[in-house]
Design a protein that fits this description.
By secondary structure, the chain is of the alpha+beta class. It has two domains: 2-76, Beta Barrel (Thrombin, subunit H), CATH 2.40.10; 93-173. The chain is built from two helices and six strands; from the N terminus they run βαβββββα. GO terms for molecular function: RNA binding; translation initiation factor activity; translation initiation factor binding. Residues 1-20 have a biased composition (Basic and acidic residues). Keywords: Cytoplasm, Initiation factor, Protein biosynthesis, RNA-binding.
């Protein structure tokens, strides 16, 4: 039930300038019984599908989906009629503060990218150390088994040698 709007380039992408729906693509389908309304929230991150009591009386309620097409919540409500997204509050920043943030966004982005890289390298180093430890444990276990097998093989050869000598002494003696 997710739609993808290609925006301003819809006419170029589909070759049709007259059809306003030409830029809409079906990405996924899902089922919501007797759905009456579908609406995105203002951020574009969430979608709601609703079954309203204005149209029918069975299984009224709403479902909220995220932009990755995952169902977040489903509410079946008797006599459900209306769903409204909570309005987004106005920003507390002045226009000048907003411009300043926009100017320094790349600078902050670089800082956060560096922090992410450091964290990733730390995680990678920890992962590499854990893998090395596991490999060392595995190699130690294999070496131990090889020693035990070699010792057991030596014991068997000695036992066979003694048994062979007894056989030869019994036959020859």
């Amino acid at each position: 039930m997710a739609l993808d709007f290609t925006g301003k380039d819809a006419s170029r992408a589909t070759g049709s300038e007259k059809d306003p729906g030409a830029g809409i693509q079906l990405l996924d389908t899902t089922e919501h019984y007797d759905v009456t309304d579908i609406e995105w929230d203002l951020s574009g991150r969430y979608l709601t599908s609703r079954a309203s009591a204005w149209r029918h009386t069975l299984k009224n309620g709403y479902t909220i989906w995220d932009f990755r097409r995952q169902e977040l919540t489903k509410q079946v409500l008797d006599r459900f009629k209306q769903f409204l997204w909570r309005p987004r509050p106005r920003t507390l920043l002045s226009k000048e503060q907003q411009r300043e943030i926009h100017k320094r966004l790349r600078e902050h982005s670089k800082q956060f990218d560096e922090e992410d890289a450091v964290e990733e390298s730390t995680v990678s180093a920890e992962l590499i150390a854990a893998r090395r430890w596991l490999i060392e444990e595995w190699n130690a276990w294999r070496a131990k088994l090889r020693r035990e097998i070699k010792e057991e093989k030596g014991k068997r050869e000695k036992e066979r040698g003694v048994a062979q000598e007894k056989i030869e002494q019994g036959v020859c003696g």
